[in-house]
Specification:
Pfam families: DUF2388. Keywords: Signal. Helices cover about 70% and strands about 0% of the residues. The two termini are about 15 Å apart. It has about 100 residues and is mainly α. The longest helix is centred in the N-terminal third of the chain and has 14 residues. It has one domain. The chain is built from 7 helices and no strands.
């Protein structure tokens, strides 16, 4: 059931526009904000989440002890776009990123 909720959360997150200013001030988001995510396009949203896959893998493998900047940016973006993602744990969202 939780996987279904996370899948819905990811789908909703990609359907809703995200403002690039939400990534300002992070090392991973600063480059993205200036190079395409500023348009608020869905493809920019996908890019941030897809780029977080390696960080998500490390996070899941370490049972949440290793956190990367790209994963942090993706988690923030997913939660800004979806109430279901806000309710999910970081580990659940990281697993959902890996399942994409």
């Amino acid at each position: 059931m939780i996987r279904l909720a996370i899948g819905c959360a990811l789908a909703l997150a990609f359907a809703a526009p995200v403002h690039a200013s939400s990534f300002a001030g992070t090392s991973a988001g600063a480059g993205s904000a200036s190079s395409g995510a500023s348009s608020g396009s869905t493809s920019g949203n996908d890019k941030v989440v897809l780029q977080a896959r390696e960080d998500a893998a490390g996070f899941v493998a370490s049972d949440g002890r290793i956190r990367g900047a790209r994963l942090e940016a993706a988690l923030r973006q997913l939660r800004e776009g979806s109430a279901e993602a806000r309710a999910a744990s970081d580990l659940e969202l990281a697993r959902a990123i890996l399942a994409r």
